[in-house]
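4.2 Preliminary Data

To establish feasibility before requesting continued support, the project team ran the inverse folding procedure on a target of 75 residues. The structure was first converted into the token representation described in Section 3, and no sequence information of any kind was made available to the design step. The complete token record follows.
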């Protein structure tokens, strides 16, 4: 699922996500639990303000963010 993400840009553009749109609400990123980098993408496992953990992937060539894992019920 493609999502809108607002990012912190420090050393580089879109360095880490600050908040993202999920459905009709915006969720703040409370913690970056894990991050990894591939040749043309960056992935972030984040804990959001709703208490759930999400995985966001940024495809740098297309400048597109994707939510690749949604929280399970009761998580």
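Position-by-position output of the design step:
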């Amino acid at each position: 699922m493609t999502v809108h993400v607002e990012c912190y840009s420090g050393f580089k553009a879109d360095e880490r996500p600050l908040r993202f749109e999920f459905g009709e609400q915006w969720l703040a990123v409370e913690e970056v639990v894990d991050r990894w980098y591939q040749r043309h993408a960056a992935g972030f496992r984040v804990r959001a303000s709703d208490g759930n953990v999400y995985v966001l992937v940024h495809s740098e060539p297309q400048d597109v963010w994707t939510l690749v894992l949604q929280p399970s019920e009761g998580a």
